[in-house]
Inverse folding.
């Protein structure tokens, strides 16, 4: 079965092709069958491959289909590389991907562009599988750009609204900054080490470069740039909240469960390089910490249900970066998996809320929806518990591992731990603020709507609920991938540390409870303080990062573009146009339409030619 | 037997050709244009005959026979076109027909 690994990207690609080439002429049931079925088939294939791979006891399985191009010593192949890490990723992508596809068959049923939606979704899954199964960085980059393209297409899915198109362009351009840095990183790696095959590259880097050498730092920094852009970390995080303009299943699949974690995957995949540059690895941890705190504060103030989840995604990926930065590779990948479960659950549940309440996004116009939307309520409750790392839910295990690794990493690790724990407090507060405001208290609108979930929408929610609860018990087989890291050592820390890590999220939930359920504390009272008001404004705007980029980058660029409207090169090319236009005018004048004139010119021409023949 | 000098024949052919050309260029009635074309064709035929007589070769005669057939075919097509043109535009004046003006 393992040699059928090429089926994994191929099946979704076939789904994409058949949907794209029929151009929406298929009936909706057929579209749903192809769209969700191709991913379901890919999941079954992935599961069979995984079982055989784990049974075989091998650490790696490489399958080469063909050589992509051959330029001198540069021969990247369409080659699939399966080890514990890509195994976990491929199961997440096909498994969670299938659930989200299934959900979408119900959620998007009324949309006129049903077929287009599923064709993009299938293309996305194909590209994402390519990304995680690639054995060389060129193929990885193909998948990397492929998912970026699909992200762009799907954010702007409802393109009639110009704001959605703007959000899509913003996402594309901002991630492009990171992608450019990554591309330069690839060029540099190839120039220095002469290969882009990931495993060869890691071996070569270890033998050629000293720890802390300049090249290692440069390359890992450039790759980090790509990861930061894709995973929406500081300073390139501004695109993700706007990406919520896309349909909600997209937010679940691309902007929570899979694509945005590609940066984490990239760093985990090239972790050897980052270990050679301890300084950069530390930077990864601090970027993660800064991002998770910043996004946590911002999530506290948002009104839009999807924006809260978007900032929470940024914040959770911050945790993953924090874990990567302190060398807890497997813990980060573990958190990636549990996050895929509970964040997909939260987004799909948010989709159900939005769908049932006629596209209402403002949580303060909901309230008391516990009875009205029972499935969404339970999904949100379980998802938020896992998100807030409530003991023995999936998020608890993964986040704990990351924080413990930070604590044990020594040096400034304690500060990373403190920041991470404070982030956990914020996580508890903002996630339960959402739950309490939407599902508890008095109803503030939309009193009569019923929950709209069919079989297709409820089943994924139930499965994801289960996974969010028990996902923490899954053992991911990544030890052999990271076996030289410190991640797999059992850590023994005092009960106090454990107690703090359990208590702090509960404290966050409690604070949220006091504010939004019991009414012991009131937001209005808090807002009467000037400082609180100021902080609210800063946090609500996402720390003015958008405004900053608007001033520093966008406005000067637009100004330059305006200034250069009649630029020199345009004049050069315009002159070509003017010359050919006037020449055309002259020649067109000779076309009088009079037969006599044509004959005369023919005779004159003949005479000229004859005279030339005679005299020359 | 007194032969006609070659130059005379060629000059006659030249005069005929120029007459035909002038006719083609100046006439506005398409029927006359066609007739002038015939004169030009015959002028070139005459030049071939003269050349054949001068050099004693048969090719000139063969060429004239070809020109004759060609002219017959051309007239057939040309007259057909003229009839069509008259049906469509109710005129045989070529200066009226300037639809191809650039």
């Amino acid at each position: 079965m393992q040699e059928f690994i090429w089926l994994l990207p191929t099946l979704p690609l076939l789904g994409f092709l058949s949907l794209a080439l029929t151009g929406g002429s298929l009936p909706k049931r057929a579209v749903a069958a192809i769209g969700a079925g191709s991913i379901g088939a890919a999941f079954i294939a992935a599961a069979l491959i995984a079982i055989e791979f784990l049974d075989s006891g091998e650490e790696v399985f490489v399958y080469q289909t063909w050589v992509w191009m051959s330029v001198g010593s540069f021969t990247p192949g369409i080659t699939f590389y399966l080890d514990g890490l890509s195994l976990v990723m491929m199961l997440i992508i096909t498994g969670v991907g299938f659930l989200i596809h299934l959900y979408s068959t119900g959620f998007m049923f009324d949309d006129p562009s049903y077929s287009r939606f599923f064709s993009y979704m299938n293309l996305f899954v194909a590209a994402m599988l390519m990304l995680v199964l690639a054995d060389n960085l060129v193929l990885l980059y193909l998948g990397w750009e492929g998912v970026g393209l699909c992200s762009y297409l799907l954010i702007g899915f409802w393109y009639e609204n110009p704001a959605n198109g703007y959000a899509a362009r913003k996402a594309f351009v901002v991630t492009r900054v990171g992608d450019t840095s990554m591309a330069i990183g690839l060029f540099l790696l190839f120039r220095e080490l002469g290969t882009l095959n990931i495993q060869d590259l890691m071996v070569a880097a270890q033998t050629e470069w000293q720890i802390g050498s300049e090249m290692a730092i440069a390359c890992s920094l450039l790759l980090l740039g790509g990861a930061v852009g894709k995973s929406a970390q500081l300073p390139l995080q501004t695109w993700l909240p706007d990406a919520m303009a896309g349909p909600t299943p997209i937010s679940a699949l691309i902007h929570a469960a899979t694509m945005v974690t590609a940066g984490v995957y990239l760093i985990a995949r090239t972790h050897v390089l980052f270990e050679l540059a301890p300084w950069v690895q530390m930077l990864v941890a601090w970027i993660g910490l800064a991002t998770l705190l910043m996004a946590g504060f911002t999530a506290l103030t948002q009104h839009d249900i999807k924006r809260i989840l978007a900032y929470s995604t940024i914040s959770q990926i911050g945790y993953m970066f924090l874990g990567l930065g302190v060398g807890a590779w497997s813990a980060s990948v573990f958190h990636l998996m549990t996050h895929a479960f509970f964040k997909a659950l939260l987004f799909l549940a948010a989709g159900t809320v939005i769908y049932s309440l006629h596209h209402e996004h403002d949580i303060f116009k909901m309230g008391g929806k516990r009875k009205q939307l029972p499935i969404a309520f339970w999904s949100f409750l379980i998802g938020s518990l896992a998100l807030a790392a409530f003991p023995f839910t999936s998020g608890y295990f993964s986040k704990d591992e990351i924080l413990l690794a930070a604590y044990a990493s020594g040096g400034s690790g304690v500060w990373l731990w403190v920041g991470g724990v404070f982030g956990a407090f914020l996580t508890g507060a903002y996630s339960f603020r959402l739950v309490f405001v939407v599902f508890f208290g008095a109803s503030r609108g939309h009193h009569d709507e019923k929950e709209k979930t069919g079989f297709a929408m409820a089943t994924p929610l139930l499965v994801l609920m289960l996974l969010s609860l028990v996902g923490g018990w899954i053992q991911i087989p990544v030890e052999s991938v990271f076996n030289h890291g410190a991640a797999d050592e059992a850590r023994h820390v005092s009960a106090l540390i454990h107690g703090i890590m359990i208590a702090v999220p509960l404290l966050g939930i409690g604070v949220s409870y006091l504010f939004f359920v019991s009414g012991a504390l009131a937001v209005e009272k808090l807002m009467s303080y000037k400082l609180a008001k100021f902080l609210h404004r800063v946090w609500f705007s996402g720390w003015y990062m958008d405004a900053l980029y608007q001033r520093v980058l966008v406005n000067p660029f637009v100004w330059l573009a305006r200034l250069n409207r009649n630029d020199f090169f345009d004049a050069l090319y315009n002159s070509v146009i003017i010359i050919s236009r006037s020449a055309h005018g002259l020649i067109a004048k000779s076309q009088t339409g009079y037969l006599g004139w044509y004959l005369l010119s023919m005779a004159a021409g003949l005479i000229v030619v004859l005279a030339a023949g005679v005299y020359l | 037997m007194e032969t006609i000098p070659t130059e005379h024949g060629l000059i006659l052919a030249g005069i005929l050709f120029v007459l035909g050309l002038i006719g083609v260029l100046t006439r506005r009635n398409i029927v006359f244009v066609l007739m002038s074309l015939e004169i030009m064709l015959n002028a070139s035929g005459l030049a071939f005959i003269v050349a054949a007589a001068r050099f004693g070769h048969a090719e000139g005669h063969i060429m004239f026979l070809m020109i004759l057939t060609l002219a017959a075919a051309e007239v057939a097509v040309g007259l057909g076109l003229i009839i069509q043109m008259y049906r469509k535009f109710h005129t045989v004046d070529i200066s009226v027909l300037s639809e191809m003006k650039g």
